[in-house]
Amino acid sequence: MPLDPDTRPAMDCAELTRSAEALLDGEFDERERAEAAAHLATCEGCRRSVEALARTREVVRRKLREALGPGASLGTAPAALRAGVSAALRREHVPWYRRVLAPLPVAAAVACAAGALLVVATTRDDDALPQAVAASHSRSLPLDFTAASVAPEAVTRWIRDRVDFNARPPEFRQAGVRILGGRISNIQDRTAVYIRYELPHGQMGLFMVEDPDRRFGGGGREMHVGPATVRVANARGYNVVVWRKHTIVYSLVSDLDEQDLEHLVESALAPQR
C-alpha cells in the first residue's frame, strides 16, 4: 500500500521499536505494514534490530520444539514443566486487563479538579503537539491492553506500573463513552500514555505526557469549557483539545465536530454537582 507523504508522517524509530513484536506477529494492518516497511527501508539501525528480534524468536521457537516435542533427540521435558510452559504461553494471548483487572468493579474515577486546570501557555499556531497526537491516533497501532469497558481507576493503576509520572485519565460523564484499551506511546522524544475510547458514533484518543518545562503547547485557539480554559486546534482532519493539569498535558483527539467535542470535554472537566 503506497504512502502519501503529504498527509502522513513516516513511522519513527521509537514507534517501530515499541511495536516490533506486533509487526512480527502480523498484527499490523496494510497501512501500518507499509509505514513500517518505509521506515525499515531507510533506517539501518531499526532494520538490524527487527532482524535480530526475528532471529531470536525463531531460535526460541526451535529450542522449545526440540525440548517439548514428542520423540525429540534432546529428550522430552517433564510433564509438569511442559504443562507450566503451555499454561504460560496460553496466558500470553490473554489481554492483561482480563487477567488482572477483570475482577474489579467498573466504577467512576475521581474527576479532574477543574480548578487545577491551567491554560497551556504557548499560543504558537505552528505548535507540533496537535500534529503529533493526530498522526499517532490515526495509525491505530495495537493496544497493550484491550477490554469492552475499563474503569478509569484501573487504567490509572496500569499506567502507574509503566511510567514514572502521575497521569490519571479524566472521567467523561457522558452516555456511551467507554475505554477500549491503551498503550504506551511517545510524543516526540517523551513517553506518553494513550487511551482509546469508544463513542456512540466512532472513537477518540487521549494522550497524556509529562511536561514540567512547558515545552508542549496546544496551538490553535483558546476556548472556555465550563470553568476551565483549553486550546483547540485542527490537525489531519481531527479536532484536538489540549489542557494542562500541573505538569501533565492532556491531548484529546477526535473527529467529532467542535460543538459535540466541547460538550464531551465539559463532561470531564466541569466539577461534579
Walk me through what this model shows.
With 273 residues, this protein is an alpha+beta fold. Helix content is 37%, strand content 22%. It is built from 9 helices and 9 strands. A hairpin with a 2-residue loop joins β6 and β7 (228-235). α3 crosses α4 (44-68).
Largest sheet descriptor = 9 strands, antiparallel
Question: Distance between termini?
Answer: 51 Å
Number of H- or I-type helical stretches:
9
Q: Give Rg in angstroms.
A: 21 Å
Helix amount? 25-40%
Measured by DSSP, the beta-strand proportion falls in 15-25%
**Which class of secondary structure composition applies to the elements?**
alpha+beta
Structural shape:
globular
Name the poorly predicted regions.
1-8, 96-126
Number of strands: 9
> What string gives the helices and strands in order?
HHHHHHEHEHEEEEEEEH
Mean pLDDT: 76
Key structural traits:
273 residues; alpha+beta
Helix/strand layout:
Blueprint: H1 13-18, H2 20-24, H3 30-42, H4 44-68, H5 79-92, H6 96-100, E1 117-118, H7 129-139, E2 145-146, H8 152-160, E3 178-187, E4 190-199, E5 202-210, E6 221-225, E7 228-235, E8 238-245, E9 248-254, H9 258-269
Antiparallel strand pairs: 1-8, 2-3, 3-4, 4-5, 5-9, 6-7, 7-8, 8-9
Helix pairs in contact: 3-4
Quick structural summary:
It is built from nine helices and nine strands. The chain is an alpha+beta fold.
